[in-house]
Hints:
Blueprint: E1 3-11, H1 42-51, E2 57-61, H2 62-69, H3 81-88, E3 91-94, E4 106-108, H4 113-123, E5 126-130, H5 133-142, E6 147-153, E7 172-175, E8 180-181, E9 187-194
Parallel strand pairs: 1-5, 1-6, 2-3, 2-5, 3-4
Antiparallel strand pairs: 6-9, 7-9, 8-9
Amino acid sequence: MGExxxxxxxxxxxxxxxxxxxEEDLDGGFRFGGWQAPLxxxxxxxxxxAGMDGLDALLLGRRxxxxxxxxxxxxxxxxxxxxxxxxxxxxxVASRSALALDWAGSELLSLDITKSVAELRSRHQxxxxxxxxxxxxxxLHEQLFDRLNLWVYPVLLGSGKRxxxxxxxxxxxxxxxxxxxxxxxxxxLHYALVDGEPETADMTD
Length: 205
């Protein structure tokens, strides 16, 4: 049975809107598009690449799909491992409306996300959701994921689309490996979903 990985870049206040490019997502008058680039370094790049080892499918929301489809197919350098990977693997898109999916290997999911995710798990072993914040809310709310991978950047953005905006429900997670901090201060956190709601106790127990 395959696993669903959610991969996100986030500020300390859990804003994950438009990390990569200035014009990526201007919703709500967001002014800080491209906030990730000044704080990235070689260690973060190597972590992201290592995290894609074994990736055999992408699962994307509509906006992220449009961004990726306008960028990665143009990167045909065989020495670019991410471009080669993204262009090769199947891409599955969650959208409430019909789309023209011009990126080779793309497929629109049915509106029954629970059923669609179950089918993807039966077809693939290592499915990654990158960005796709609106869609991530559904995955968090329905607990339709197995791994949550966060790169937390040392910046406060104040406003913007947040990871846990309205989709999270009480959920237990387990840190799967020690946190690693890059020279630029980016902390990589890798969690696995754990059955059951968070436990409680008094600190005096």
